[in-house]
Write a structure and sequence with these properties.
Transposase; mainly alpha
Length: 177
């Protein structure tokens, strides 16, 4: 907006203070606004407010005000979504860091492969959703559906945990690039 330009919902050149105050009441009545309702609220003549409404284009000005309010609301919503996504991404990174630290110090016999897999899945899913992505197809989550980890030998469990650690480290390195 150019300097000195007045928005249509602000007081207009030649508009008296009383006429503008009446417009503000009309404008603030919202979508169900009417000159009659504004006149009743102000205890003023309907014909006086009708004259002001025509002279100062109340209908057009109120519609412009409504559009501006909608624009501001949508901008606030978009900013809130960005803020939430940033917080969720930081949370996911913190969870993944803890998972990597735990994996590096973990004796494979302390945690079942299914528990470890779930730990990784949750952290990766939080991170994906935080950046607006859908779950990736063909990842660890898809491949391990229906695996009976109880039937794995100790050696197979260790190998599976190593595989999961490598998968997590790969995902972490992709996320930091």
């Amino acid at each position: 907006m150019a300097e000195g330009t007045v928005e249509s919902w602000e007081r207009q050149s030649g508009e008296s203070v009383q006429a503008f105050e009446a417009f503000a009441v009309y404008r603030d009545l919202g979508p169900a606004r009417s000159v009659t309702k504004a006149a009743q609220e102000l205890d003023k003549s309907r014909s006086l407010l009708g004259r002001w409404s025509r002279q100062f284009a109340w209908v057009m000005r109120a519609a412009a005000y409504d559009r501006e309010q909608d624009r501001l609301f949508l901008a606030e919503q978009a900013q809130a979504r960005r803020d939430i996504a940033r917080r969720h991404a930081k949370l996911a990174q913190a969870v993944q860091s803890k998972a990597v630290a735990r994996l590096q110090s973990l004796d494979p016999r302390e945690l079942s492969p299914s528990e470890l897999l779930r730990y990784i899945q949750v952290a990766a899913e939080i991170e994906r959703r935080a950046v607006g992505e859908a779950p990736a197809a063909g990842t660890v989550e898809d491949r391990d559906q229906g695996v009976d980890v109880a039937s794995l030998s100790d050696e197979e469990r260790r190998a599976r945990m190593d595989q999961l650690r490598r998968e997590l480290e790969r995902r972490l390195s992709e996320g930091t690039q």
